[in-house]
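stage 2 :: seqdesign
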């Protein structure tokens, strides 16, 4: 039997920096990347486009099974496709994020996405970014990171990201929306946002990307995942 593909899981709340850290780590190692939040966002966007009722659980689960998704990454650009169209920016709006956190609370949708997510684990390795990567999707992962940061810091980071993209944003509204999403993600019955028992918790408040990445790389080295 061939050795299992190594997986590093990076879980945490919105704006904790997991996307940035996961992308940087995958690039450094030449590993694949799973942005599982993008999958939930794609289900939400697809539901909106198909004009599903917001509480149509089976309809959303059907879309989660049937939708054709594509992730392409070059050195400085990533492209996410839904049923043959580029939706990279369309899925990043706060409205789609809110909708994603609603559909993500339904076990039927989570089950529909489970095998899709596991299929991302291909040699030489996978960095999996999400909320339940270490607890549900890849419970055997040899390195699990749980990244946190204060609500203020997470709202400020999201605010700066949006400003950089030229979008209008209000810091207090963002802070409220992130708190609302956290509340839903932490308190839902299905795969709530929680650190796996064997996860290493890193609080990134006051740390820059390089400092967090250095910690993760050192942890991987200690576990012989890379040299
Ligand atoms: O990470 P991102 O903000 O793109 O995720 C959008 C939403 O998808 C989250 O608020 C969360 O509710 C849901 N999600 C999830 N499980 C994951 C990834 C994301 O429930 N593994």
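stage 2 :: out
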């Amino acid at each position: 039997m061939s050795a299992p593909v190594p997986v590093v899981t990076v879980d945490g709340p919105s704006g904790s920096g997991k996307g940035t850290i996961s992308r940087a780590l995958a690039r450094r190692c030449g590993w694949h990347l799973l942005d599982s939040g993008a999958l939930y966002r794609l289900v939400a966007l697809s539901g909106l486009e198909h004009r599903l009722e917001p509480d149509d659980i089976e309809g959303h689960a059907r879309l989660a099974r049937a939708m054709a998704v594509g992730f392409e990454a070059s050195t400085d650009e990533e492209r996410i496709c839904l049923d043959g169209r580029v939706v990279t920016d369309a899925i990043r709006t706060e409205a789609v994020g809110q909708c994603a956190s609603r559909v993500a609370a339904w076990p039927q949708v989570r089950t529909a996405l489970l095998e899709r997510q596991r299929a991302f684990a291909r040699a030489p390795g996978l960095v999996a970014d999400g909320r339940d990567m270490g607890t549900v999707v890849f419970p055997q992962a040899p390195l699990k990171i749980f990244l946190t940061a204060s609500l203020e810091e997470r709202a400020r980071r999201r605010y700066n990201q949006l400003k950089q993209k030229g979008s209008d944003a209000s810091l207090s509204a963002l802070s409220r929306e992130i708190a609302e999403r956290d509340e839903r993600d932490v308190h839902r019955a299905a795969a709530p946002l929680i650190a796996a028992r064997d996860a290493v918790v890193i609080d990134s408040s006051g740390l820059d990307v390089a400092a967090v990445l250095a910690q993760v790389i050192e942890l991987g080295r200690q576990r012989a995942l890379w040299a």
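stage 3 :: structure notes
- The chain has nine helices and eight strands.
- The longest strand covers residues 143-148.
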